UniProtKB/TrEMBL annotation:
Top-level taxon of origin: Bacteria
Species for this entry: Streptomyces pharetrae CZA14
Protein name per its UniProtKB record: Phenylacetate-CoA oxygenase subunit PaaI
Pfam families in UniProt: PaaA_PaaC
Family matches, as InterPro entries: Aromatic_CoA_ox/epox, Ferritin-like, Ferritin-like_SF, PaaA_PaaC, PaaC
Length: 257
């Protein structure tokens, strides 16, 4: 990779794999809304958001495969790994629940992703910076969608507000993991290769709090925080999701279309 110390390549591969897994898994979850969304417009909106996320995953997984020395392609990484080999944040794999729960998950993720990609756009590597700039602009539209629905549901009927409140309570314990740092991230941040996620949390919280407050609701204060996704420890519902994602490839290994 241009201008990058060879010693940083394995760490960067793991970092990009995590971001790629986030996008791929969340994209797969949103695909499950196709033909099931509350309206035709939302069916199309969620489908388009999923397509953007899968596009991000393709770019990130391709780069990770080049850096990790295995020569694996984006398809190898998406379809050839077991569930324990995925390193996505647990938030992205949570079941869709009702529409309000999905909106809550989108609110948390999109505000984080915009900040993450905006800082990635400032890194020294030109290809990575270009990807970050493009992805930040695309996810900004996803964020607007989540913001609008959070306010609409929160200020709608008593029932829609209850559902939105329940959705926030459901997903909030999974948000802290987005900003966790381990030795991989610390080494990359110390070398200036990629930004640290931890400093983004305060800005993220301020922004989502503004939206939730506008919706007439309150940001939850969970008594616990989920973790483990970055290490391959996932929720009970993750196995079936990956089985669905990989079903055609596993049924026809080596098949081409």
């Amino acid at each position: 990779m241009p201008g990058e110390p060879p010693s940083a390549a394995p760490d960067l591969a793991r970092y990009l794999l995590r971001l790629g897994d986030d996008a791929l898994v969340l994209g797969q979850r949103l695909c499950q809304w196709i033909t099931r969304a509350p309206t035709i417009d939302e069916d199309l909106a969620l489908s388009n958001i999923a397509l953007d996320l899968i596009g991000h995953a393709r770019a990130l997984l391709t780069r990770a495969g080049r850096l990790d020395g295995t020569g694996r392609t984006e398809d190898d990484l998406a379809y050839g790994r077991s569930d324990r080999e995925f390193t996505n944040a647990l938030l992205t794999e949570l079941p869709n629940g009702d529409f309000a729960a999905t909106v809550a998950r989108q609110l948390a993720y999109t505000h984080y992703a915009v900040l993450s990609y905006e800082t990635l756009a400032l890194c020294a590597d030109p290809d990575l910076a270009a990807f970050g700039a493009r992805a930040a602009k695309e996810v900004a539209f996803h964020r607007l969608h989540a913001d609008r629905w959070t306010v609409t549901l929160g200020r709608g009927t008593e029932e829609s507000a209850r559902r939105m409140r329940d959705g926030l309570e459901r997903v909030w314990p999974y948000t802290a993991e987005l900003f966790e740092e381990d030795e991989v991230v610390r080494r990359l941040a110390a070398s200036g290769t990629v930004p640290s996620p931890a400093p983004l949390r305060e800005t993220w919280l301020g922004r989502v709090t503004e939206v939730v407050t506008e919706a007439g609701l309150t940001v939850p204060t969970p008594a616990w925080s989920a973790t483990g996704g970055r290490s391959g420890l996932h929720t009970e519902e993750f196995g079936p999701l990956i089985a669905e994602l990989q079903s055609v490839r596993r049924q026809f290994p080596g098949g081409t279309w």
